[in-house]
């Protein structure tokens, strides 16, 4: 069966193998999952080339053909909340790493995301580590990458952000150049230049692919780094939220240090967590042996456990964003009950496609309602509260299935 994508007429022709042309379907109706049709071809390409092709397609406006009209419908009110003075229509966001240069934040938002994070961006353009540097683990629904902050630099990103309509929430993930001798200066430059263009900023000190970067999470180094960044943010003329993204591989002592430092430094939130250098038991893909950060389904347990621990250590004094291994609505719900006010994903999109965003939102709304929560905010951290109603997992799974079929 061959699908002819509509153009100005916004319709889709379906041709049957018999040669009989099928009906014309309006582009606003529920279209077939076109990503599922394209993915076999994308899998034949090197992973990084496939990503580049999808980015270019989104720039050309083809994103509207990848999802159906449900993705453009208003989100259920139960999913909305205000954080940092911003209204998030739903808690599901795109994690940093896909749109490194701010090329398609609005296109990604139109896929149904409640917010989009772009980057990681460094002050100067950077080529990153040698290719190949992205390795899919198909059997494990995971990816190993050692990209190394490849990006076009702050000049290119700032130019694009200056032209974008401020119609949705876009965060900017900041990093340091690999050859920089002054990490604080790199991050300060990022904060100063992006503060008035981003809805929130992220200090990425947790990628495993830039030598020495994770050392910045140590107590004294982190305190010394965050102080000038908060000052730069305050001097920018606005008070854009400033978040820190941490690694899932922190020791118990390092977790306590991070919590203490970010509270003292007046940081606005944490993103938990980045990719892991660990290789959980049970991985079957040959690519699991590749060096780099592991993302996807195998990261879920460790990142969620760290999220719950940081929620306890932070004592509810700042919002947390949970990321790592989210593949369905139940995963997103578990992150929220572990302490996340917002949830991000990226790797799961590679395997499931953009329809996943709407499925997660629909299922999450059903899970919240089934447990008697009036909003996402009401459910945050309740998995750690012994006095909170415990969810009926079997009933929730059933309601999720009903909501997503």
Task: Outline the secondary-structure elements.
Blueprint: E1 2-4, E2 11-15, E3 21-26, H1 34-43, H2 47-59, E4 81-83, E5 86-88, E6 92-94, H3 105-109, E7 115-121, E8 134-137, E9 142-145, H4 154-163, E10 170-174, H5 183-194, E11 200-204, H6 219-235, E12 242-246, H7 252-264, E13 269-272, E14 293-296, H8 300-314, E15 320-323, H9 329-338, E16 342-345, H10 347-352, H11 355-370, H12 376-379, H13 393-404
Parallel strand pairs: 6-7, 6-16, 7-10, 10-11, 11-12, 12-13, 13-15, 15-16
Antiparallel strand pairs: 1-2, 2-3, 4-5, 8-9, 9-14
Short description:
With 405 residues, this protein is an alpha/beta fold. It is 35% helix and 17% strand. The protein has a single domain, classed as Alpha-Beta Barrel (TIM Barrel), CATH 3.20.20.
Q: Main beta sheet: strand number and arrangement?
A: 8 strands, parallel, barrel
What is the CATH topology descriptor? TIM Barrel
Helical residues, percent: 25-40%
What is the CATH class designation?
A: Alpha Beta
H/E series, N to C?
A: EEEHHEEEHEEEHEHEHEHEEHEHEHHHH
Task: Provide the structure class.
Answer: alpha/beta
Task: Give the total of domains.
Answer: 1
By DSSP, the count of extended strands is 16
First and last CA, distance:
23 Å
| Helix run count | 13
CATH superfamily: Aldolase class I
